[in-house]
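Researcher: I need the complex structure. Ligand is guanosine-5'-monophosphate. Inputs:
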Amino acid sequence: MRTADARLAGGRGGQAAAAGPGLPGPGTTSPVSGAPAPECSSQHGPLARRLTVLSGPSGVGKSTVVAEIRRSHPRVWLSVSVTTRAPRPGETDGVQYFFVDDAGFDRLVDGGELLEWAEFAGNRYGTPRRPVEERLSRGEPVLLEIDLQGARQVRRSMTEALLVFLAPPSWAELVRRLTGRGTEAPEVIERRLEAARVELAAEKEFDVTLVNTSVRDVCDELLALMAVQ
Ligand code: 5GP
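Model: Output:
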């Protein structure tokens, strides 16, 4: 049986920025001398270092991983995004998402209240800024589950954030998961598959890749990367 497999990326200009469990995390060792690097050198100080972004193609299982971490490690704070997408069966406002209409989303954008936001498959999604900043200022581990465009925005604005790419075991498996969900219309699935092709090609922009062969293993790898016991 295959297990979750952490691939170390040579992103960020080719430096070995990523680490698996037991290895030093990004920013803890100088890529040049191997000596301990300052805890955090960006304008965001050590705070943003606690920010982890989980991204990857739609259907790869990000939300299942996040739900498992919510259940098993409530001390990890999970951002609840705002979206204009309609709730799926079983989704509750304020739990999986805050569901808003277009005008409500516009107000959040105009008021600068979103840390990042993106349009994905015809709907908009964004991360409320204030709760993230509050948690980070308290030194709490924060996890965002967002799409590629959002991950790129976080990379630009919070350079010490750890960007984790969740990859499917294979393309066929991703197609199976996306089509098998049974909650989306065929044209929506097609848009998501198209987006997935683009997102898969962006894997090299991330610090580390976890292959989703087992939800439990991915959670363990992710928690180790976040240094959460
Ligand atoms: P879904 O509609 O399947 O819940 O989510 C669609 C995509 O939107 C997923 O790739 C998910 O990671 C992404 N997403 C969810 N919340 C956010 C967010 O706050 N910002 C961004 N940029 N993407 C998000």
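Model: Summary of the prediction. The first strand starts at residue 6 and ends at 8.
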